[in-house]
Amino acid sequence: QVQLVESGGGLVQPGGSLRLSCAASGFTFSSYAMSWYRQAPGKVRELVASIVSAGGSTRYTDSVKGRFTISRDDAKNTVYLQMNSLKPEDTAVYYCCARLQMTAVASYAHWGQGTQVTVSS
Predict the structure, then answer these.
(1) Residue pLDDT tens, the chain, 121 long
(2) Residue 25 CB coordination number (10 Å)
């Protein structure tokens, strides 16, 4: 019954913006750290951004700092990724991930199916 459903992807021109959403259900959203990952063809999945909790700390991979913003609305069980000044190298399938830290060394994660973001002229 756990679901993470990404939306908001699509085709955008370089310099444009997209806002990805990930709607969660089937688990206690507020207990989970939320992250966005992306994976381009032939490349490993990389962590793009994460947010620990509502009002909590955020982190970004260097390549998106200053351009992307992760946020969450626990009342709506939704995490967002605002992507501005998009570049062709941002093209990838973007996945949201919900992670529950069970212990200092172990966590449990839920993954969405991904949404395609294509940045092209």
Answers:
(1) 899 999 999 999 999 999 999 999 999 999 999 999 999 999 999 999 999 999 999 999 999 999 999 999 999 999 999 999 999 999 999 999 999 988 989 989 999 999 999 999 9
(2) 11
